[in-house]
């Protein structure tokens, strides 16, 4: 079982709700994640990771028949996507496992006391693509596209020294965003089965697959 994600632009207010792109709404005391080893501008501002999506877990709980994810709270996903969104001068981690600091998964058991973190250019314009609402439905475990749980479309990893890995989120290439992981590959957030059961989302890994 997996959960398919479809997204689309909307006029609805998505603050504090599940959404793709846009600005992250993070809990009190949680700082917006920066790229480890990234550039620092003249004002001392560190280079940030790209916010991918935030997931209000109660939205997918009815579809998560195995109970793999918490029933409440929020998950946030970030990664270094500049190159794959068209900035060909940006660093590129390539296929395989990405190094720590090039991605981040944040989990909160609560969805209150959230603060919107606006990432803007020096002129005040948004540095993020417009937020899109997320809709969910059950799908096959090896389905392509954007999805939660199941297995990566390009299943190559197997077991590791950390034990069995489970798929958290698959991000697929999508032309309408200019998002391309080389030859129509996918970016997968993975987590050890024991870490998933213990809700240690901070120990997730990222692998990029390309055909």
Low-confidence stretches: 158-162
In quaternary terms, these chains amount to single chain
Number of strands: 13
Number of helices: 1
Radius of gyration: 16 Å
Helix content: under 10%
* Pattern of helices and strands: EEEEEEEEEEEEHE
Major β-sheet annotation: 11 strands, antiparallel
Would you kindly provide a written description of the structure presented here, covering whatever features stand out?
The two termini are 23 Å apart. This protein is globular. It has one helix at 193-197; strands spanning 2-9, 19-20, 24-27, 50-56, 74-79, 96-97, 103-108, 114-117, 132-139, 147-149, 165-172, 186-192, 205-209. Helix content is 2%, strand content 33%. The chain has an eleven-stranded antiparallel beta sheet. Strands 3-8 form a two-stranded antiparallel sheet. The longest helix has 5 residues, at 193-197. The chain contains one helix and 13 strands; from the N terminus they run ββββββββββββαβ. The protein is an all-beta fold.
Keywords:
single chain, 211 residues, mainly beta, two-stranded antiparallel ribbon, 2% helix, globular
What is the structure about, briefly put?
With 211 residues, the protein is mostly beta strands. Helices cover 2% and strands 33% of the residues.
